[in-house]
Write a structure and sequence with these properties.
Blueprint (H helix, E strand, L loop, with lengths): L8 E5 L4 H11 L3 E6 L13 E2 L2 E2 H5 L5 E5 L4 H12 L3 E4 L5 H4 L4 H7 L4 E6 L14 H8 L19 H24 L3 E6 H7 L2 H7 L2 H4 L15 E2 L6 E6 L14 H10 L15 H4 L4 H14 L4 H10 L2 E6 L2 H6 L1 H5 L3 E6 L3 E6 L23 H7 L4 H9 L3 E2 L1
Parallel strand pairs: 1-2, 1-6, 2-5, 6-7, 7-8
Antiparallel strand pairs: 3-4, 5-14, 9-10, 10-11, 12-13
Helix pairs in contact: 1-7, 6-8, 7-8
Length: about 425
């Protein structure tokens, strides 16, 4: 089978997470991705722990299926190399401050003169316009500015940041979408174009489903996990200590309209079986599962009662009990549990590759499959400058010219 983006050439002048995660996905679809790194390397190579044999786990996670060219693009000869690459490229990505690429002769207007079909993508924290466009951005600033912190924690307490690099990751995903759309547009019209994405625009886009609710605070006073009647759901501890769990389906009263949803009678039967029958007459439990297992402040007060009873059972035993009464148990897996789960194996979500210095690496596979195409076989994240000679030779540079560029501090091999 042919790869969906076979023969598409990508020049990637980005660092960190957003741009590299986007170009990794393009590489997963078979595009030829050339990663341009400063002589000291993408700054994410130094971020950690964890490190694997001196390699940053973060860098390794978003840079497979690429070739690395270590280059000083501040130097004129370095800029000439970038221009040569862009002239033959389909897509060019950069994540500098607005105006910085133009000052180096590497802006859209400059590169598209020699390559009108070029799709030029600029990734910024705050976009190219407005009072914040020239400010330094960060993951924390993007999360805080768009308010996504407010989905975690308890009502009335300070909001909690999302531990994952959420804004950077979703920016990479939306940039991937924009580039694919631009390639399709070019296929129809023959025209290249400039594409822009931003951290705050991407993070805000994921708030779309709660925007209407949050736009009328007097009525809602928040939404989702931050509503005063819905505290943070921590799940319940089980005997084996392998997972936390929360009660789903009709057991919580959230999904009683579904065919598999439990009933009030089912919840009462569950309470009897796990030794909590004495609480059925307790006024605090009068509302049934809807008011005692996750939906109200009452649930927060009674959490320890459930915890004490449910720790007598393993996750598997508890799942069997709950299933009999029309509910569901959802183990909250850690990485090891997810990697060993039979569904993970069936879907081939985790695979392995061999890295030249870090050895055997496990990685999360792309979340798609095709009937009449295929995902490109994964190559390991490159060492810094691993493909410098190869890429320059493909541009017509002789071995002597490459040696001079190295001597002049323009490239690293």
């Amino acid at each position: 089978m042919e790869y969906p983006l076979h023969s598409i050439k990508i020049v990637d002048l980005t660092q960190g997470i957003a741009g590299p995660s986007c170009t990794m996905e393009l590489g997963d679809l078979g595009a030829d991705v050339i990663k341009l790194e400063p002589l000291e390397g993408d700054y994410s190579r130094k971020l950690g722990p964890p490190f694997v044999a001196g390699e940053s786990a973060l860098f390794l996670s978003v840079n497979r299926n690429k070739k690395s060219l270590a280059l000083n693009w501040q130097a004129q000869k370095g800029q000439e190399i970038v221009k040569r690459l862009a002239k033959a490229a389909d897509v060019f990505l950069e994540d500098m401050k607005p105006g910085a690429a133009e000052s180096l002769g590497l802006g859209y207007e400059q590169l598209s003169r020699d390559n009108p079909r070029l799709i030029y993508c600029s990734i910024t924290p705050f976009g190219s316009k407005g009072p914040m466009s020239q400010q330094e951005g960060s993951e924390l600033v993007a999360q805080g500015m768009t308010g996504v912190w407010r989905y975690l924690g308890n009502w009335g307490e300070p909001p909690i940041r999302i531990g994952q690099d959420f804004a950077s990751t979703v920016t990479g995903i939306f940039t991937f979408h924009a580039i694919l759309a631009s390639l399709f547009h070019r296929h129809r019209t023959g025209e290249g174009q400039k594409v822009e994405t931003s951290f705050i625009g991407s993070a805000a886009a994921l708030k779309n489903i709660v925007w209407a609710a949050q736009s009328n605070p007097p009525e809602w006073s928040g939404f989702h996990l931050q509503a005063p009647f819905w505290p943070a759901d921590h799940g319940y501890k089980t005997k084996d200590g392998a997972a936390y769990l929360r009660m789903g389906g009709g057991m919580t009263g959230r999904s009683t309209s579904r065919p598999r949803g439990g009933t009030l009678e089912g919840w009462q039967g569950f309470m009897q079986e796990v030794g909590l029958g004495e609480y059925l007459d307790d006024p605090r439990f009068a509302g049934g599962p809807a008011t005692t297992m996750g939906n109200t402040t009452n649930a927060h007060e009674l959490h320890h009662i459930y915890d004490e009873a449910l720790q007598k059972y393993t996750t598997e035993e508890l799942a069997a009990i709950v299933s009999r009464y029309g509910g569901e148990v959802l183990p909250i897996n850690d990485y090891e549990m997810l990697s060993k789960h039979p569904q993970t194996h069936a879907m081939e979500i985790i695979k392995e590759m061999e890295h030249p210095t870090a050895g055997e690496l496990k990685y999360i596979t792309p979340p798609w499959s095709f009937e009449k195409a295929d995902t490109a076989p994964s190559t390991p994240p490159p060492l810094l400058g691993q493909h410098t000679t190869e890429v320059l030779q493909s541009l017509g540079y002789s071995q002597q010219e490459i040696h001079v560029l190295k001597q002049d501090g323009v490239i690293a091999l």
